[in-house]
Amino acid sequence: MSTRAIGVIYTTVSSDRAGAEATITTLARGLDVELQTVLVLEPGTYMPTTLVLTTLRERGASTVIAPSPDHLAGIDNAVTLIADVITPEGMVARREFRC
Is this model's pTM higher than 0.70 or not? Predict the structure, then answer.
């Protein structure tokens, strides 16, 4: 079974949605990752962290792909607790959570 991923675009970071989606799609194809969906977060998105984490679980995904790290600003700590993050700059592996 291939790795499943979701894409995340934050509109305040990039006004070029088509370009951002193309970057996500290219990264997914290049890494042989099955892209499940692309979430578009806007300033008014209700609970964006919860939306991303819930979508990961619902889609059976273990990876988040974004056009740049800035697209995950503010939610990156929570995301890396349960998923790997891939951007053109590189990959951030899932962190181990310790109580």
Answer: yes
